[in-house]
Amino acid sequence: MHRPTFAALPAAELDALERPSIVLFGASEATPYNDGEPSHSADAPAAIRAASLGFARQLSQLDFDLGFTPFPDPDDARGVVDIGDIDTRPEDAAGNRARIEAATRAVLAAGAVPIVLGGDDSVPIPFAAGFEGRGPLTVVQIDAHVDWGDDIRGEPLGYGSPMRRLAEMPQVTGMVQVGVRGLGSGGAWQIEDARDWGSRIVTAYDLIRSGIDAAIDAVPAGGRYLVSIDCDGIDPAAFPAVAMPTPGGLRYEEVVVLLHALAEKGEIAGLVLAEYVPARDDPQRLCAGMAARIVAVAMGLVLGDSGRAVVRPKK
Length: 315
Description:
CATH class: Alpha Beta
Distance between the termini: 50 Å
Mean pLDDT: 95
Strand order of the largest sheet: 2-1-3-8-7-4-5-6
């Protein structure tokens, strides 16, 4: 049976990975607040994959967002594979977490970088748990909210708590939170807890004053970075298809520049993109297209420049 893949890249099975470089997989949900109710982002992996087909045939061309050609040989996927979606069920939160964590562990054991198409923002918790024993890691989060809730509606593992839960993991030794603004981050004690732990919070207003360098400068050099992108970190004027649209935020280009800086300063160890809500997208699925492009740029930066078919700007 044919299975759609991200940007028409090769499909693979989790239990039969052969020296992959990057493994993509979808995860619709991990821990819902309402048991049995599908995530608002449950359809996101399929929508992002569908949008990625719009540029699939262009991956062997120069990508100006990268500065090089990601796949110079259209017949060579450079070890990138898509293993499809992890089996997640809204009535089985514990099982969801176990399966997402196990998949992440398997991808890392195969020597690849995992990239997750989410899914709500509870997915980063089991994703990061899969990196146990593979630290130290610095989490770089793009989000309108700090996500340091402890117990929300009786649930400590929901989408309001991922950064607090990640900070409790021994493999996570640093955190930079970019784009925070507006309401939705809880009480002041949550921000105080984040800063007391050592998180470096770069607000949207820091970005206005100092540009994206305010975020780049906060990231320690030489690190391994676990990137968590909540799509509401992006300006809703450009990306309205989120559960909690908050005025302001990053532009697409700023996300790209930050990802470049991470690849230059250290190593992108994994990435999860969450909180895209297909039901709130426009008929052309432009937000899905932006999400797909962010994933494609991250993928290209992990692969690096092969040194072929690259156009260099004139000096």
